[in-house]
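HUMAN: Spend a minute on the protein record below and explain its fold to me.
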Amino acid sequence: MTEQAKPTVLIVDDESGILDSLNILLRNEGFTPVLAQGGKAGLERLAEKSPDIVLTDIRMPNVTGVEILAAARHADPDMPVILMTAQATLQSAVQAVNEGAFYYIQKPFRNDELVAILRRAAEHRNLKFENKSLKQAIRRHERNGVARPVGSSKAWIDILRLVETVAPTDSTVLIGGESGTGKEIIARYIHELSTRTEGPFLSINCGALPEGLLESELFGHVKGSFTGAVRDKIGLFGAATKGTFFLDEIGETTPATQVKLLRALQHREVIPVGSTDAIPVDTRVVAATNRDLDEEIRVGNFRSDLYYRLNVISLHLPPLRQRRDDIPLLAEHFLNRIAGLRNEPVKRITDAALEILMEYAWPGNVRELENALERAIILTPEAEIDVSSLPEKVTQRKSEPLISARTPPNPTLEAVERAYIMWVLQSEGGNKSRAAEALGIDPSTLYRKLSRYGVEA
C-alpha cells in the first residue's frame, strides 16, 4: 500500500445491514471496502484480495473473528486486524490483543471513532512498510539482520556491544542519559535483538500525562471506574504482552504510581483502575530517565525498591558533544532518511557546514541535530546544504563550558540542572516552548521544573 492509494479494508460480518452501512461509510471516508458475509466468506476474500486492513466481527457462526485474525496474521504479520463485538469484557480484550489484534472495538460504536481507528491502522501499515524500506537502505549498519544505531565512536560502540550482549536475555534494562541522546532508539534495538522481536514494542512518556491518566494508560481501567470510562480498556502493560514495554521518563512518576509499577515488575500482574482482579502480564520492561535516580532516592522522590527492580542492567548514553566523531555519520544518515521519507533526491552537506555542526555543543543532542538538518532540507532549494542553511543558533554559537571556574565546588545535581535549564531558556530568549524543544522535554515538564526552582512560569 502506498500513501496515495486508498487502503483496502476487508469487512467481515454475518449481518448484511452492518456490511451495507460500513460499505457506504468507508467509501465516503476514502477507503476501498471488500465485503464478506460470514466468517467462511471472510477467509476466502482474505486469500483472494490480500487487504491492507481487516475489520471483523468476533461472534459469527462456523468461522469466528478470532479465526479470521489468526489467518490474517499467518498471511501477513503486519496486517492490522480490528475486532468488533457487542459483548466486550476486559478478559476478551486482553485475549484479542495477546493474539495480535490491532484494536478491539465495542458495538455500538460511533462512525468517527471507527474511522479514526482505521486511519491509525493505515498509518501503522505504511510505517511498517517504510521501516522495512529504511532498514534495507541502511544494511551496512546491520547486525544479524537488525539495523544497528548509527555511530562509530568508541563510546557509542561500547554501548552497542553491551546492548547486544544483554538484549537476548529477558532482564529489565534502565537507560540513562540526557534528553535527545537516543534512549528510545536503544530500547527498540534491544527489542529487535531479543527473543520478543515478533511481539509488540510499546512506549509511553511517563512525564507527559497526569497521574490518573497515566495509571489508566499503564494498567487499564474497567467501565465506570471514573468519569468518562464508558467501557473497559486494556492497559499498555497488557497490550505489550509477548513484547517490550518502554517506560520513558520513569523518574517523573509519582510515589503512588511507583508502588503500582513495583507490583507489576515483582508479580508480573496488573490491576486495572477500578478493579480488584489482577491480570497476568508477560512483557519485558525497558525504562529510561534523564534524572540521576540515586539523587532522586536520596531526596525522597523515587523509591529505592523500584530502582533496584529496574536497574538490573544499566546503560548510560553519552551526550553528542562527547561523541563528535559520530556527527558526520549521523548527518549522512539523517539526510538519506529524510530524503527517502520526502521522496526527494538526497542533498549533500558542504565541508564548511559540517565543520559548524562538529563545533556546536548540541544541548538537545541527536534529536536537535536531526531537527536542524530537516529544517535545512526544507529551506534549501539547492542540492547542497551550506552554512547559510543551518539554524542561526548553530552557526553563531561556539561550544561553551556550562560551568565556569567561578562555579562553587561540588554543586548539587539540582543546582547543575537548574543552571543548565536557565542557560537554555536564556539562549532561547525566554521562549519556553523552544527551550523545552532544545532540552528534549515536554513543555509541561519544563513548567514543573521551573515551578520547583521558584521561577515564575
